[in-house]
Amino acid sequence: MKLKLLLFAGLAEHFGSPVLELDIEQDGLTPQELKALLAARYPAASDVLKQAFVAVNQQYADDAARITGQDEVALIPPVSGGEPEPYTITRDPIRADEVTAKVLHPDHGATLAFVGTTREFTHGKRTTMLEYEAYEPMALKTMRQIGDELSARWPGTRLAITHRLGTVPVGETSVVIAVSSPHRDSAYEASRYAIERLKQIVPIWKKEIWEDGSEWKGHQQGPWNPAAGLPQEGETRA
């Protein structure tokens, strides 16, 4: 059975497309079977799939519904008013307190926010502004990957990232990475990991604009290999 699945909002960003074309061996399946199939094929999206609803022919489907290849099927994320999206790309000024609020938890005793701003002088050269560009669907997907990596390394840790695109004048914020954890040692370690991992794998590029020219900057962490993870504690990388 061939099934065309419509995706919206954060779900479309998770899967990198607003439409999925699925080849399914069985002739029909229930909404729960569809979500289980998607979770098996896209394990990084398993958490968001748990919150999603299935709509069949523009109606919310109950667990007994039977989906066929002739149906119009959509996967519906929680509508406005649900949990705030922890990973965001914006062209507007960023408020650090709004990003931090996304990770607050009554069981967490430590909350940290890394705030990256445009500095005026770098190696003695005066910067007038920075300009950021991104491959947005992939950037959001890799931010979520970082969140999954943090959850695996420091269970229970929460992460939120907001990154600004376009021009960012001196003194204004380009990125906020907020982390919360039950204990401060995990929060510090997870925050540092998230910052370095963002530089390594998230497809966002920075142009430094000076009084007399400009230049696109890479991640400046040695040979670029986004498929490699960060070193474990005590390890070094060539």
UniProtKB/TrEMBL annotation:
Superkingdom of the organism of origin: Bacteria
Lineage: Bacteria, Bacillati, Bacillota, Bacilli, Bacillales
Protein name per the record: Molybdopterin converting factor subunit 1
Residues passing through the membrane, by range: none
Organism: Paenibacillus oleatilyticus
Alphabetized CDD domains for the sequence: MoaE, Ubl_MoaD
Entry-linked Pfam families: MoaE, ThiS
InterPro entries recorded: Beta-grasp_dom_sf (IPR012675), MoaE_sf (IPR036563), Mopterin_biosynth_MoaE (IPR003448), Mopterin_synth/thiamin_S_b (IPR016155), ThiS/MoaD-like (IPR003749)
Region ranges (Disordered): 215-238
Gene: moaD
